[in-house]
Amino acid sequence: MTFKIFTLLLQAAVSTIGISLVSIAIGFVIAILLSAANLSGKAIYSAPARVFVSFFRGVPLLVQLLLIYTLLPAIGLNVPSIVAAIVGLSLCTAAYQAENLRGGFASVPKGLIEAAEVTGLSPRQTFFRIRVPIALRLTLPALVNEAIMILKSSSLVSVVGIIELTKMAQDLASSTYLPIPIFLSAGLIYLVICSVIALIGRYAERRLARTSI
Amino acid sequence: MLKRHFLKAAVSAALLIGTAFSAHAADDALARIKAAGVMKVGTETAFAPFDFIDAGEHTGLNVDFFAELGKDLGVKIEWVELPWDGVFPALEAGKFDFVAGPATITKARLERFKMTAPIAEATVAILKKAGDTSITKPEDIAGKAVGSGKATSQFAQLQEYSATLPTKVTAREYVSFNDAYADLAAGRIVAVANSLPNIAFVAKQRKGAFEVVTPAFGKKSYFGFIGKKDADSASLVDYVNSEVIKMKKDGRLAKMQEKWFGTTFDTPDEVKEPTF
Amino acid sequence: MIFNPEVIIEKLPELANGLLVTILLWVAGIAGGVVLGFLVATARRFGGFVTNAVLGSIVEVLRGTPFLIQIFLLYYGGPFVGLMLDPIPCGLIGLMVYSAACYSEIFRAGFGAVPAGHVEAAGCLGMTRLQTIRRIQIPEMAVIVLPPAVNLSVILLKESAVLSIITVPELTATVSAIGSQQYAYLEAIFILAVVYWVLVELTDRIGRLAEYRLSRLRFSKA
């Protein structure tokens, strides 16, 4: 029985990892777009981007998920659970990643950008070939932190009907009435996943540092 | 070119009429379920023995009941599992057709929703730690710390009962009953007030850890399934209701109760006046 | 679903109470977390290999597991090892310890970012290690540490909603109970969204103001 419980927790951890990874990737793309909007210097782009970041950082993820899952149907958008979960997590992490990137973009040396312009790179080329790679390198530790945060926050997606690690632990605890060992095991699994993410992050940092500016 | 445009218009017009007709043919919740061949049921899976996860499988009395109903109606049952807090907003948002739960049939709920005939008794009783000799009858909880579920009818009943005792109980509200059981084990509270079928199951699962104190202290109340009150759902609610009564008559419900509660309940066909 | 503002007005006292509990626990939690986190970061930097390794593993465990699980184990598991805490103290301790682990990492990065030359220069001038920490490292770190520390505080505000599982009557628990009792889901979602959003915006504003003043201080001629 104990072995069975641990296997079930591991299976649920796969959902946790899958949903988190997909959301972090989508969130990263949105965060780059938000940064581009912010750096455009045009209010029609930067103002909505600012409101986006403010909203998704300010409103709790739980509330965002409920908005997407139970309020969107009122305007005819009845999204399934998995879509609601990934959209909610992606938008939330996009806001945080954009904030991290903001610091990174601010630290890109001005001289490099000027040099890029002088060599005839278009603003778009300068953005994608100079600013993004450097900002990314500068904010990699923050990105790894954010990945760990999202992995832990993904436990909230159970409010839209997704069974992930925490929800599975709660369900198992509520049929066996043995919450303490089950939650200890779930905590251990989270710890292992987070440690692996941190290790990969440190490895990537070292690799990037070698090819430094 | 023109011909193609015409063809396109004709096809889309035909499609439009087609959907209009099919919409007419399936113009209420029950008809749509039959047409789709799937009935979606929302529930919380932390409510043993009605809905819970056993060895990774969603199981319990609700699963058995709706499987029988699905057979009778000729549709597949699809479960949507949410935290209890989220079940009713999701029902109103149209995420599923019916709520299993079940929920205690109360006046307040009947104002907002339609509820089926009872599937089990919901009368509230006390769960204590095994071997606790200081509580042998319900009134022994007077002046002690007792837990129950936050914003539940069981909690309301506990408070009502507490008011009749010589000294009130210190009532503590937990987000889920399972947290209350955990705190009973931890020793911060001496009892948990919840419906008889639920705590009987807890005591059975954790023999030697928990015990039920008989008799139940609450007013007699019943569990039912929940549907929407609008005209669209009327025939669906009637259908599920008729299934409850049918399974009660042909003995299937009693068999399920025996399987999940270890006992059977004598339930009425209709709760006209809930006790609270 | 219809929006009915009367529900909110009717329950204003309860809501105010929930908000107060959330703010008090959050402010006390992060205040304790900052102090404890700074001590941990300092001890890890100057306390030798063993201290660093031990504290480092504790920090990793706290940062690598969800706060929900930590608080659950502390409250419901604690009594089995003789640690019986009431909900509010348990929530406060849990929040402090968890946030200390997170803040300590920010401070550690801050220590690392102070140029070694500045520290050496202070040593040459005859400053003791304590003086160097207090007069060189802390002021220089402050500018670097502030933005991520504000960001973390915002995250912790929202994490504090987890305390509802140990029966702390904080804002999220209060609002969702009202929501389900009154079937006022829309109103509940609305209140939670607005209140947390306002609190986060306020925190950000204060953070930016502090950042601005600090950076002026740092580069001023005096």
List keywords for this structure.
heterotrimer; A: 213 residues; mainly alpha; MetI-like fold; 8 helices; 82% helix; flat; B: 276 residues; alpha/beta; D-Maltodextrin-Binding Protein, domain 2; six-stranded mixed beta sheet; 14 strands; 43% helix; elongated; transmembrane helix (chain A)
Describe the 3D structure:
The complex is a heterotrimer of chains A (213), B (276) and C (222). With 213 residues, chain A is mostly helical. Chain A has a domain of 148 residues: MetI-like (MetI-like fold, Orthogonal Bundle), CATH 1.10.3720. Chain A is built from eight helices and no strands. Chain B folds into two domains: 132 residues, 3-Layer(aba) Sandwich (D-Maltodextrin-Binding Protein, domain 2), CATH 3.40.190; 90 residues, Periplasmic binding protein-like II (D-Maltodextrin-Binding Protein, domain 2), CATH 3.40.190.10. Helix content of chain B is 43%, strand content 23%. In chain B, strand 10, helix 6 and strand 11 form a beta-alpha-beta unit. By secondary structure, chain C is mostly helical. Chain C contains nine helices and no strands. Chain C is flat and about 70 Å long. The termini of chain C are far apart. The chains are: A mainly alpha (213), B alpha/beta (276), C mainly alpha (222). Chains in contact: A-B, A-C, B-C.
Secondary-structure element pattern of chain B, one letter each: HHEEEEHEHEHEEEEHEHEHEEHH
Number of strands of chain B: 14
Low-pLDDT regions of chain B: 14-24
Order of helices and strands of chain A: HHHHHHHH
In CATH terms, what is the architecture of the largest domain in chain B? 3-Layer(aba) Sandwich
What structural category do the secondary elements of chain A indicate?
mainly alpha
In angstroms, what separates the terminal alpha carbons of chain A?
Answer: 55 Å
Radius of gyration of chain A in whole Å, from Cα? 20 Å
Task: Indicate the overall shape of chain B.
Answer: elongated
Tally of separate helices of chain A: 8
GO molecular function (chain A): L-cystine transmembrane transporter activity
Family (chain A): Belongs to the binding-protein-dependent transport system permease family. HisMQ subfamily.
Protein name (chain A): Amino acid ABC transporter permease
Organism (chain A): Rhizobium deserti
